[in-house]
Amino acid sequence: MNGDFIDALHEIEKEKGISKDIIFDALESALISSYKKNFNASQNVEVEMDRTTGKVKVLALKEVVDIVENEYLEIDLDDAKEIDDRFQIGDIIKIEITPKDFGRIAAQTAKQVVIQRIRDAERDVIYDDFINRENEIITGLVQRISKNNVYVDLGKTEGILPPSEQMEGEEYNQGDRLKLLISEVKKTTKGPQIILSRSHPNLVKRLFELEVPEINDGIVEIYSISREAGSRTKISVFSKDPNVDPLGSCVGFKGSRVKVIVDELKGEKIDIVIWSKDIGEFIANSLSPSKVLNVIVDEKEKSAIVVVPDYQLSLAIGKEGQNARLAAKLTNWKIDIKSESQYNQDIE
Fold first, then answer.
1. Same domain, 102 and 229
2. CA neighbours within 13 Å on the CB side: how many for 30?
């Protein structure tokens, strides 16, 4: 160890934000292990590094005793008093035992420790950066696909898009540029793991915030979203300003705003509906594009019977019940859809 090493630690502290003391402490612990591995595992030792010069000392710790039973761990009182006549039985004495070629081992160990500490610090920086961005949108490049997991280059690090977070029917190819939701950030022994999503409802929410200035400004608000990723999404919105049309804001001129989102989601259908404090009106809106004749609400059960024209029954229910299912999720109410003739028969 020499002055160059100390200078290098100053640079690391400046550039990487890693305290010199953290590296010195880690280095001293690593050097104890190195000494025991290369010289004597039976000894109780301490390593001291001069913070200014980088000089390394190995010190054996021995207890002062009457009769020595283990020469590696104990020293008799007479020998101890030769070093310093103030020593008493039970005292711990430090004796320098630095091996001749320990400098070479110290240099190798220092290199490994510094590299590991830099790596750990960089991982911590990435973790701290991404943990504060959970639930945000990020753009990434598909890097590779392995065992159905899609690995995405996020610049500083790599994210993973697991099968459970992929959009049904969407294909991923190397080099594809995608917008993804940062779903979860985990701390692991191999560094931060960033879980990405293309199927989460919040991805749609964030895309609308990006494309619709009125939402970003807080004039138009998203009340709820229900999504079957890759197929269809329903989103309910309302305006805080009576002069701003929430539906028009989200759709954009000639559908320009919603088209950008649909294109990003590879053609996923998006129904934008108006939220209303009147639950009957909100339920009727949620079944768009179907027309609704009447909504009979049961507040206690949080359920509603919705009456639609006979010719619109299949449209209201949707293919495989999708429209009704998404409407129920959007409103958080149980919805029973009946055609006009069915409802009239039930009344009779």
1. no
2. 19
The verdict on residue 130 lying in a domain is no
52-100 pLDDT, tens digit each: 877 888 888 999 998 888 888 888 888 888 888 888 899 999 888 888 8
Question: Both 117 and 28 in a single domain?
Answer: yes
pTM (two decimals)? 0.72
**Is residue 178 in a domain?**
yes
CA neighbor of 59 nearest in space, from 81, 82, 75: 75
Number of structural domains the chain divides into: 3
From residue 87, give the alpha-carbon distance in Å to each of 25, 65, 70, 71, 321. 29, 10, 19, 17, 88
Tell me the chain's radius of gyration from C-alpha atoms.
Answer: 34
Calpha distance 302→331 (Å, rounded): 10
CA-based nearest residue to 288, from 209, 234, 347, 215:
234
Contacts of 342 (CB under 8 A, 6+ apart): none
